[in-house]
Amino acid sequence: MKTLGMIPGEMERPKKQITITKRRFLYCDKGGFLVMDVQPGAVLSRGQRIAHVIDLFSEVETIEAQGKTYIILARVNPIVHTGDRVAFLGLEWNEG
Fold it and tell me: Which of 4, 10, 33, 70 gets the highest tally of CB atoms within 10 A of its CB?
């Protein structure tokens, strides 16, 4: 917006910028209350927990990273139905 003159000031480049080159949505297999275990911007390794779904009595599903994963977006509404989107993941990226 600064470059286009919409707001005053000079544009400042971020110190770190990530370019996602491969991405996908993550879906849940069970419905219930979603508890996110990570925040957007987190980088996870294979097997690390992204989220879990619980019902009134117990945990019904654990959602883990299938490989090196960058969390682009995480769901904030705690109620999910079977097949709902849970997060948007970066699977490959460049840092520059």
Answer: 70
Whichever domain contains 37, its CATH number is 2.40.50.100
Q: Indicate the pTM of the whole model.
A: 0.82
Distances in Å between the alpha carbon of 94 and those of 33, 64, 72?
34, 22, 14
Give the model confidence (pLDDT) of 59-95 as tens digits: 899 999 999 999 999 998 789 999 999 999 999 999 8
Inside any domain, residue 84:
yes
Whether 66 maps to a domain, the answer reads: yes
Residues 6+ apart with CB under 8 A from 44: 38, 50, 65, 68, 69, 70, 71
Quote the Cα angle for 53-56-59, to 5°: 35
**What residues make up the domain containing 40?**
18-95
Q: How many domains does the chain have?
A: 1
